[in-house]
Amino acid sequence: MHKHSKGFSEETKFMFFIFSIIIIMLTIMFGSMNKTNYYKIADAHASIEIVNSCDLTLEELQNRNGKLIIEKVIGEVDNFITGAGHVVDNPNYYISYAGMEGISNGNIICSYMIYNPDNNFEDDIIYRFDYIIDARTVEFED
């Protein structure tokens, strides 16, 4: 091991985790990893798309037709008590962090929403992962 090696960042580890989940889901969808199924999984991999929230349209969600769409959202916590937050790229868009532990006002959160590929409902999120990427806090004035 090299002395200058620091290992993977927390965000990189999180991305490995997400891709591991995707591989597990594909394996479940297509069965065991024999030679025939390997090619089915490789073909399915081309139908996985990670999209930033500001680039994702309602039309894309309603017409995914089996495509696995993963939405990446960068948000900020506005009220840690209620979990209210907003999307950084579009402050008019609300995002909830209710039930997320250890958050404070001003925290920047990276969220990944994995939409169900088996239907085209725009609100059918089968997995959601939230990760604090900036733990800055904002104090309220009295």
Question: Can you characterise this structure?
Answer:
A hairpin with a 2-residue loop joins β3 and β4 (90-96). It is globular, with a radius of gyration of 18 Å. It starts with 9 loop residues before the first helix and ends in an 8-residue tail after the last strand. Strands 1, 2, 3, 4, 5 and 6 form a six-stranded mixed β-sheet that branches. The chain is built from three helices and six strands; from the N terminus they run ααβαβββββ. It is 26% helix and 32% strand. Mean pLDDT is 78; it is low at 1-6. The protein folds into two domains: 9-46; 50-142, no CATH class. With 142 residues, the chain is α+β, with helices and mostly antiparallel strands.
Q: Keyphrases for this structure?
A:
142 residues, single chain, alpha+beta, 6 strands, 26% helix
Proportion of beta-strand residues? 25-35%
Whole-number radius of gyration?
A: 18 Å
> How many domains comprise the coordinates?
2
State the helix count. 3
Largest sheet: 6 strands, mixed
Low-confidence stretches: 1-6
Helix/strand/pairing class, anyone? alpha+beta
Helix content: 25-40%
Helix-strand string:
HHEHEEEEE
What oligomeric arrangement do these chains adopt? single chain
Label the overall shape: globular
Mean pLDDT: 78
Total beta-strand segments: 6
Taking the alpha carbons of the first and last residues, their distance comes to: 52 Å
